[in-house]
Specification:
The chain has 228 residues and is of the alpha/beta class. A 7-stranded mixed β-sheet has the order 1-2-7-8-9-5-10, with helices on both faces. The longest helix is centred in the last third of the chain and has 16 residues. The protein is globular, with a radius of gyration of 17 Å.
Length: 228
Amino acid sequence: MPDAIDTDPEKALFKLDFEFCQTGWPVQDLEVLARNITCRRGDRLLLSELSFSARSGECLVFTGGNGIGKSTLLQHLAGILQLHTGTLSVPAGQSVFLGHENGLKNALTVIDNLRFWAGIFEQYEIDSISREFDVLHLHDFRTGLLSSGQLRRVALASVAVSKRKIWLLDEPTSGLGADSVELFTQAAARHCGTGGIIVASTHARFQGMDCHYLDLAEFVPELRGGPV
């Protein structure tokens, strides 16, 4: 299986983890761990001296303003970007990443997009997951005809189709209405309730979920008077 699966050759929209950490841990006892890491975007130092962990059944959410480094940090966790200093530990073969882009082919129907991801991940529980995200009735529609909220629900269903235990989600509720946000939080709570891990970024807290929120502003060097 390839390390990365791109639905657009110029974008890594979904990414399987790079297996940069070989743990051998059982699925029910997973942990995402960062120790004293530094994140950069080009020559700019975004975050420093950052440590955190998330274990099976936990939801960790990064908060902070635009440009603070939430997306960059998640891309480090997904293996898309190379870490500069520090240690990241992500169990091999257990994570799936969803960025701002939805990773869907506009010319394909919803069901064909979901079948594509189901085939990649060798999982086939499409109908039940489609019901969870209220996209079952959209199966025969071309993805390019959907609204932004419908597209995001299909993308989130693609994450769930993977059956990976670690969901890395960059602003997963972006573009969703209140009802759809509730569908996501219910699915996310079920995922954590079965031993899954969610590491996400957000501008608004996930209502109805027990999450740990980490304000990345605490790790921005210029806000702490450190070097930039």
